[in-house]
Amino acid sequence: MSGSPPVTAGPLAGVRVLEVGHMLAGPYATMLLADLGAEVTKIEPAGGDISRQVGDAYFASLNRGKRSVRLDLGTPAGQERLGELAAGAHALLANLKPSAIRRLGLTYDALRRWNERLVCVALTGFGMDAGDVPAFDYIVQAATGVAALTGDPDGPPTLPGYSSADNSAGLAAALGLLAQIVSGRGGQVEVSLRDVMLSQLNYRASAYLNDGAEPRRLAMGAHSYYVPAQLFPTADGHLALFVTHDAFWKSFCAEAGVSGFTTMAERAAHRDEVLALVTRALAADTADGWETRLRARGVPVAAVRTLPEALAATPEAVVSAGGFRLVGSPIRAAGHAPAYGPPPHLGEHDRREPPMAPSAGGAP
């Protein structure tokens, strides 16, 4: 487009990252870095990342734009090659159980002789000192109170419909990795799925720790502080309405033809009455109708849609990567348009290359 800024190299161009892991959290972290221009080399065993067995589209959704090198890290030759790769890298992210990370020499203490400035990230379920407790996304959601907080008050605990712990931990690991690179020091970084999920229960945990307020489930996913802020049935479909302050409430009332409860404190004190009032009002139109009407007044609202409907409504979020249609990076960096390379074939980059010292580009 005329007048548009030129597309530049990604903000992480020149940063080289090694990844050793399977499935989701670690591969998602490094894929985000690859989308931003980092060179990510995926170190895989002879059989490859387990996620290759799930399906090609699954693997592509977590590994686009990476390189693949096969190494047997349990052999002296594999360890020697790992050291050579580490000598030319800025960071290594390992997403395995703690004993495997130590046994395979994937820590800073094991690799610092190759590169003093190397950043080593250990991404585990419960932490490096917690032992090899089996840890997967759903297990961590159950262990940290997330499942107990989710679902209908009179029903069983519920798991979200996607891997919230894995994805969140991947984001945290990517942040920790970059923070340590920026420090210029090298060293060990630890991130666990458990700690990430507890951190994301921030205000819930604070209310309990400081006021003894034990969290409880509320119907329709209602917020514990704001009223009304939850899902509501309508004449057709469900609507998410999120009223966080009195101006939003005033605008809602003007459109819905209701009145009363003008302050946040009043609405919180009379939760049941407010919810009954809003439910009656919203029955007069469809979810799509209310979305159009209330958005015009600046009220935070959305009709509940399926994933296919959401993707159809946001075609700009869908990208192509080696023949796969995928959701693109959520990060928009000025002047950069991700290339979205294909996911690597297993061992595609096994050809030995001479080790290189980390370049200054993209790193201190």
Automatic annotation (TrEMBL):
Residues 336-364 are annotated as: Disordered. InterPro entries: CoA-transferase_III_domain (IPR050483), CoA-Trfase_fam_III (IPR003673), CoA-Trfase_III_dom3_sf (IPR044855), CoA-Trfase_III_dom_1_sf (IPR023606). GO terms for molecular function: transferase activity. It comes from the Bacteria. The keyword Heme does not apply. Keywords: Transferase. Pfam families: CoA_transf_3. This is CoA transferase. It comes from Actinomadura parmotrematis.
